Amino acid sequence: MKTLTFEIAKKMGKPAAGASGILLSSVRGDGMKAVMVISSSSYDELKERVSSMHQQGLPINYRTRGKSLEVTASPGNGIDALAVLFSYASQLEFALDDAQDVMGFCAGCRSFLDGCMEPLSIALDKDSLSLKMKAQIGDEEDPQGFYERLMEILTKADMGVIKQ
Known about the structure:
Blueprint lengths: L1 E10 L11 E8 L3 E6 L4 H12 L4 E6 L2 E6 L7 H9 L7 H12 L8 E8 L3 E10 L5 H14 L3 E4 L1
Antiparallel strand pairs: 1-7, 1-8, 2-3, 2-6, 3-5, 4-5, 6-7
Helix pairs in contact: 2-3
């Protein structure tokens, strides 16, 4: 097996004025701890989702930070912190399509390209995304072929790859 490490990058847009949905302020983390800061007109449903996941044994919590909600995930039950957080975030209705695309991609990335990809870390603010990834490919597989297949997926969400 060959291991490829790379970064997925995306320039994030701005939500339209008065857009309904959840505003994503930032996401930072790795397999050991992941934190997402969001804003919404009401936090009741968002808090209930965290509580429900926590009751299912997933290590996720929230706390209010001023007018924002900070959701924190840790590793547990055989999955890392990023997987817990992406599972939560993929259920949300974000005001910005870019945020929706990124969280959907992150939640499903392990199922893309024969399940060989794994997120290592994420840094997302209002302007840009940096998602560090690792992929395991067969010794006989050409890395260029892997990147070409990956770009077919990333192009749909207006993301790019930076090879390392």
